[in-house]
Description:
There is one protein chain. The chain has 313 residues and is mainly α. It is built from 15 helices and 3 strands. Strand 2 and strand 3 (308-310) form a beta hairpin. Helix 5 (85-91) crosses helix 6 (99-114) and helix 13 packs across helix 15. The structure holds iron/sulfur cluster. Iron/sulfur cluster (SF4) is lined by residues 159, 162-163, 212-213, 218, 220, 223, 225-226, 229, 231-232.
Amino acid sequence: MRTGASTAAGADESNPASHLHGPVLAWFDRHGRTELPWRDPDCSAWGVFLSEVMSQQTPLHRVEPVWREWMQRWPTPADLAADSPGEAVRAWRRLGYPRRALRLHEAATAMVRDHGGEVPRGHDELLALPGVGAYTAAAVSSFTHQIPVPVVDTNVRRVLARAVTGAEHAAPALTVAESRLAAASMPTGTTDENITRANRWNVAVMELGALVCTARAPKCDRCPVLDRCAWVAAGRPAYDGPPRRGQAWAGTDRQVRGRIVQALRESPDPVTRAALASTWPDDATKVDRCLAALVEDGLVEPTDDGAAYRLPR
Ligand code: SF4
C-alpha cells in the first residue's frame, strides 16, 4: 500500500475524506442494512457487544441467526455468566474461531464481577475485558455509547486505501499511518449532530466496504464515490505492497480443530478419543496435536479418567 496520505481533489486539507462524507452517508441511508437487529437504536449495549465479537471474522448473514439465539437465551451478561463456558461454545455453532465464545463468557463474567452486570462505558475498561481488542472497544464506544472514536476494521481500511490513498488494498496488518488516516477522516465537530454524523460515518464506511468496495471485485459502478475515488482516478493501479495473507483452510489444523469441536458440540455426552479420531481419519497425529491444543486453550476438557473429551463445564 502507498503510505503517503495523498488526498483526492475536493478533500479538505485537514480532513482527507471530507469529500466522501456526504455521498457515503447518503448511500448508507438508502442502502445500509439498518434492519440488522444490533443496528436498532433500542438494541442493548450487550447486544452490540455480542454482534461485534461475532462478526469480527464471520459474515453478517451467518452471524444474525446465532446472535438472535444468544440474545434470546442470554439477554444480559449475567445470564451468560450463569451458564457454563461449554454451553457458550456449543451455542457458537459454526461461526468459526470458537475461542471467541469462551472469551465472551469470560467477558460476561468480568462484567458481572466488575461492572454491575453492564457493558462498561470507558475505553480502558472495555479494553481490559477478555477478548476485547482495539477494534471491539472502539466499535462498542461508537455504536453503543455514541463516543466518536474511529472504528477501523478490514472494510474501513480497504475503502480508505482505495478512495483516499489510491491503493488497491490496505497493508496486510493495520499500520500506524492507516490508524492516523482513519482518525483524520472522521467527520468533526462537537454538537450532538456532529457526533451522530461521526458515529454514522463509522458504520457507513464499514458497510460500503462490506457491500460495494469488496476485496476481490469492487462494484465501482454502484459506488457513491466513484467520481471521487483516488484509486479509480489513478487508473486502478495493481497492488504493489507486501504479500497479503491467504485464507488457507483445507487440511489445516484449524479445520481439524473445527471438526473436533463440532463433534463435541453435537454430542450431549463425552466423546472418546477413538471417536474423535474419526473426524480426521487420515492423520491420527494431527488429531492428537489438535486435541492437545484445544485442551490447552480451554475449549475442550478431558473427562476425569482421561478416556474421553467434552466441552468445558
Ligand atoms: S469507486 Fe470502486 S474502488 Fe473506489 S471506493 Fe468505490 S467501490 Fe471502492
